[in-house]
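*** Backbone structure tokens ***
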Amino acid sequence: MIRPRQLLRLSYINIVLLRHGLDEVILATHLLRPLRFLSYLIPWRWFRRNTMSRGARLRRTLEDLGPIFVKFGQILSTRRDLLPGDIADELAYLQDRVPPFPGAVAKTIVEKAYGHPLEQVFASFDELPLASASIAQVHAATLLDGREVVVKVVRPGISNVIQRDLELMYTVAGLAERYWSQGRRLHPREVVAEFEKTVYDELDLLRESANASQLRRNFKDSPLLYVPDVYWPLVRRNVTVMERIYGLPVSDMDALREHGIDLRKLAERGVEIFFTQVFRDSFFHADMHPGNIFVNPRLPDEPQYIAVDFGIIGTLNPTDHRYLAENFLAFFHRDYRRVAELHVESGWVPANTRVDEFESAMRTVCEPIFERPLKDISFGALLLRLFQTAGRFNMEVQPQLVLLQKTLLNIEGLGRQLYPELDLWQTAKPFMEEWMKNQVGGRSVLRRLRERLPDWGELVPELPTKLVQALEGMSDTRRGLHEQRLELMKMREEMRNEGQRRYLAYVGIALLIVAFGLTRLPGFSLDVAWQSLSVGAVGGIAFLLLIAGWLRG
């Protein structure tokens, strides 16, 4: 049921779409192109004059609609294989050039967070933001000791805006589950819940700072990725301070070429970083759009990435981690039978799925993309076909893997831009094989033995005592079971005796009732009574003997 507030929000969305002329963009799609002539019959189009390009109008619309829609535009901006070039170029501005809020407001927020005037915390603070995104914006500053830093500040009032749009998304998701045939399989409400958790995590800069510290430890002294240091004394829930880095935007191809960056190695290292984060650490940067990724200009032959903005981090539990790794490896080896079996074992498809049919379907979808450079394939199109195939087998969407899919799409978009000839499969396959060897091979066994050895060393001196305690415990348990068995036998005997007494009482009462009834009959005499009593006694005794025998049996 759509609430009045949500209905108002839907009306506002439609007004914004019309204000920016997006009816024209919608009618230009392939599906509605045959009906485009109808646009000339829409009255408001007779007076409207659009001076901006369609890409700029789409970008402005998403900016006006708020952070949830900006996030959507950021994801779309990395998919140049799915969008026309002019639209992709405009949406790229959403990565770090969303209209900022005033610098004076940012200063007020920072001073309130620290409880001190800004001059007591920073030697300098630039009110003009370095970058502005949907959730927060970043200002350059200098600490009192002269170190250069960046100060990230959450937008004021952003939580209420997000809550309003999430309520609307939940309502639409609920309607989809109820009325759409694919709704239950795709779990739209669970997907929205996962998105909600992700967005609210971005609002907590304490969490983001902790994510940055963890990622920095994971890649300490790594030639692949550099993560800025966090200045923890200055971190608050809505303000954080990090080391300022200087790098080339990964989307600035002219600057990368000018500095002689090895683009092929840069693209390959991007793939390696992704698989390292996911499969080695199970902790990955899940917002790797070009606005958050830079390149160290001082290492052109051994290019190193620099990451910023750690608000969205993905993790995998051990079960999903294992199944996902085995799926990737089977996929790289084109072992579609194993891919199908893993989907059944993990519960991602129903247990009654025919493995041979699912294997055939996966082969049909995936085989055409192998041994082709990245420029000739599209993960977006591949995922769409996989979802269509999965629908035939009632495969349910796994909300916990949505962030991983989003990150994979970002990586593909980045690789496509840097080095379109990149063979993604050949780059990733050796890494996956090495990872599996470390996880399930002899080295894995030795590593786990080394990890457990200190614990075992502490337990060895206590083993004799633990063994004696265990034996004593077993003896006590055995003695207790024997006592319980005797008690149960005693209870059973008492119940049997009680049953015998109860039946004898019932029979006696019945005989008395019969005798009393006979005395009330017409023509009653003592001879008849003695004869009846004799017969009744014999029958009663026989009946009692039968009951007694039955009870004992």
In short: The mean pLDDT is 76. The chain has four domains: 4-95, 103-257, 258-440, 463-552.
